Structures are given as structure tokens and as C-alpha cells.
Amino acid sequence: MKKALITGITGQDGSYLAAFLLKKGYKVFGLTRQENAAVALNKIPHLADQITLIKGDLLDQNTLFSALEEAQPDEIYNLGAHSFVQTSWNHAVLTAELTAVSVTKIIDTALKVCPKSRFYQASSSELFGKVKVGPQNEETGFYPRSPYGVAKLYGHWITVNFRESFNYHASSGIMFNHESPLRGLEYVTRKISHTVALIKNGQASELRLGNIEGRRDWGFAGDYVEAMWLMLQQEKADDYVVATGETHSVKDFLDLAFGRVNLDWKEYVKTDPALYRPIELGPLVGDFSKAKKILGWTPKVGFKELVYMMVDRDMELVTTGIQNVSR
Ligand code: GDP
Predict the structure, then answer these.
(1) What pLDDT, on the 0 to 100 scale, is given for residue 68?
(2) pLDDT tens for residues 78-122?
(3) Which of 124, 188, 269 is the best mutation target for the ligand 1 pocket, counting ligand atoms within 8 Å of the beta carbon and taking the most?
(4) From atom 9 of ligand 1, which residue's Cα is the shortest distance away?
(5) In the predicted model, is pLDDT for residue 316 greater than 50?
(6) Ligand 1: centre distance to CA 55 (Å)
(7) How many A from CA of 62 to the centre of ligand 1?
(8) How far is Cα 250 from Cα 188, in angstroms, rounded to an integer?
(9) CB of 209 closer than 6 A to ligand 1?
(10) How far is the C-alpha of 275 from the C-alpha of 327, rounded, in Å?
């Protein structure tokens, strides 16, 4: 039985990845600071008893050492990070320590404890930032535009450097935005789908947003965790862009989300200057042809299907009064 250790198991991607690996017959370990397993795994409560949680903190290398000793993983998926772009401005130092330096801590520890393990680093399209050319691929230059993007850039390059210097099997997935019903409510997609459900159910009357002209390449998180796993099944570690190749605006998302419940977003959406970003990114759209060619990966869920999936799930949560809405 293969063993995998996931950092960031309490998040959206950690939850989908844990479910995916369990289905493949893995023994799954999750590193978390959270004491309470029910809280830590509240996005996948039905799988909680199949996952072994190990208490640890990405900031504290001693706990990483004990975690890797205990799990002796074949595969390590580093998904833990301070991941919300907007608030990374208010927590720039913590973001650097958690999202950047901790990558070195975990690889350095893995080389000592389980040097034969394979490592996945969750990189991000935020690396591209102020980009002029599109679509972006593995050769496109990086120009991050937030403390989060800068920290992820460090994580990406340190992964490449450990791979090239020590022949460690470390891959970096440059993932464009990926969403799901398990996305946190602070992200624009889930903020919209959840508020649409509240409005439809008479529990909210408006939706306040920032820049609705903002564009992203949005895919489905469930598809993206498969790409992570595929990277670690290759003989040779490498870097891959994972994306849909399509770009949509927040407005496009609004059209579909409100349309799903027969409402017109123009009657409910108010733009609020306080929600604008200090700087926006270039038009992000990914070219996933390398992942397609080498990993055989393509996204399965399209944009419309994704929006409908999120709105339908939030309608279910709101109408049944379920409180777990994935903060
Ligand atoms: P990320 O910044 O790409 O990680 O993802 P977000 O979901 O936070 O933001 C995606 C886009 O939506 C950006 O262009 C934001 O400026 C835009 N946006 C507009 N209104 C909002 C809002 O109320 N919340 C968030 N999070 N983003 C918003």
C-alpha cells in the first residue's frame, strides 16, 4: 500500500486529493495544526476515519521531521500555504514564512528522512502576475504581483533547485485557479455561488463585489488533483502548467450563476471600491499542452458545468440549513 502525506489537507485541494488517493488505495496522512479531527476534515467528514492526521506546523521543522518519520511517505503533496491573495498584503511576513520558506523546510527534511519520496509543490498562476503574453506556459516569464505570488515563486524555484541539485523527485504544478463547492467563501466564485443561493432563498438582498471585469482561467479542483498525482507517477519529475485554456470574466460567472436560478445579476450586484485589489493581474490563461502530452491530462469539467455545480450545491446547503459552508 502506497503512503502519501498531504500538507494543507483541511483545504479544498487537500480534501479532493485525499478522497482521490483513498480511492486509489493509498494510506493517507494529513499534516495539520488543528487538534480536532472533525473540524480539520469538515469538508470530507465521510472520509475522516480513513485519514491519519499528524499534528504539525509548516513553520516548525521539528514537527515536519516527526511527521515524515511517522508517515514514511512514498509521496508528499505540499498544498499548505497562506493562500488568499488579497489578505497576503496584510500578512506579508507570515506569507513568506509559510508559503515560501516552509517549502525548503519540508524538502530538506524529506531528503533526510525519506529521500526516496516524491514531492509535489503546489505552484500557482499567480507566478505569472503582470503578464503581457497569453496563453502562459512553462516557458513564460514570471512577474508576481502580490506577497502570495512572490512567496509561491520562491517555493517553485526551490523545488526546481532541489530537483536539479540532488536529483530529488520534486515536481511543481503551476495551477491556474481551480474552484469547487468546497472553495472558501472569500474567493469570488464561491462568494457568488453562495450569495446567489442566499438571495434565491430570501436570506440576502445584494452581492457586493470588487472588479467584475477581472478575468481568470477557472477549472474544477477535482480535475486538478488528478494532475498532481499524475506528476508523481512519472519517471522524471518536472514542472507543468495545469489549466483549462479558457479565460472568463467575473461577469461571465455572474451571468451563469444568477441565470441558473432564473435571476438577473444586474438587479443584485453592487460594486464596492473597498473590494478592489491594489493591483490586478494580466489576463491569465494557461496553455496545458505539456500536461496533456506527457501526463495525458485534460480538464473534464467545463466552465458552465463548474458554475452550475457550485450554485446547485450552495442551493442545497442553504435550503437544508446546513451550516458547513467551507470558510
Ligand atoms: P485569486 O485572486 O485569483 O486567487 O482569486 P479570487 O477568487 O480571490 O479573485 C478572482 C478575481 O475576482 C480577481 O480579479 C478579483 O479582483 C475579482 N473579484 C471581484 N470581486 C471580488 C470579491 O468580492 N472577492 C474576491 N475574492 N475577488 C473579487
Answers:
(1) 98
(2) 999 887 777 888 899 999 999 999 999 999 999 999 999 999 999
(3) 188
(4) 188
(5) yes
(6) 32
(7) 36
(8) 8
(9) yes
(10) 18
pLDDT band at 323 (very low <50, low <70, confident <90, very high): low
Unique residue bearing C-alpha cell 507517477: 233
- Beta strands of 61-213 (E only): which ranges? 75-78, 118-124, 169-175, 178-179, 207-209
Domain boundaries, the chain: 3-178+220-242, 183-216+246-281+302-320
- From the list 77, 117, 126, 172, the catalytic residue is 126
Torsion-angle region of 131 (φ positive above 0: left; ψ -120 to 50: alpha; else: beta): beta
User: Which of 1.10.3720.10, 3.40.50.720, 3.90.25.10, 1.25.40.10 would CATH assign to domain 183-216+246-281+302-320?
Assistant: 3.90.25.10
d(CA 178, CA 180): 7
Do the domains 183-216+246-281+302-320 and 3-178+220-242 match in fold? no
Active site residue 148: yes
Q: What is the pLDDT of residues 241-257, one digit of tens each?
A: 999 999 999 999 999 99
Q: What band does 327 get if pLDDT is binned at 50, 70 and 90?
A: very low
pLDDT for the residue 324:
56
Is 141 in a helix, a strand, or coil? coil
The active-site residue, picked from 148, 168, 224, 240, is: 148
What CATH number is given for 3-178+220-242 in this structure?
A: 3.40.50.720
Distance 21 CA to ligand 1 centre (A): 30
**pLDDT for the residue 261:** 98
Residue linked to cell 495539520: 32
187 Cα–ligand 1 center, Å: 6
Work out the percent of the chain whose per-residue pLDDT is above 90: 89
Percentage, residues of the chain above pLDDT 70 = 98
State how far Cα 265 lies from the chain centre: 27
The pTM for the full model equals 0.96
- Is 120 tagged catalytic? no
Q: Tell me whether residue 154 is one of the annotated catalytic residues.
A: no
Residue nearest to atom 14 of ligand 1 (CA): 214
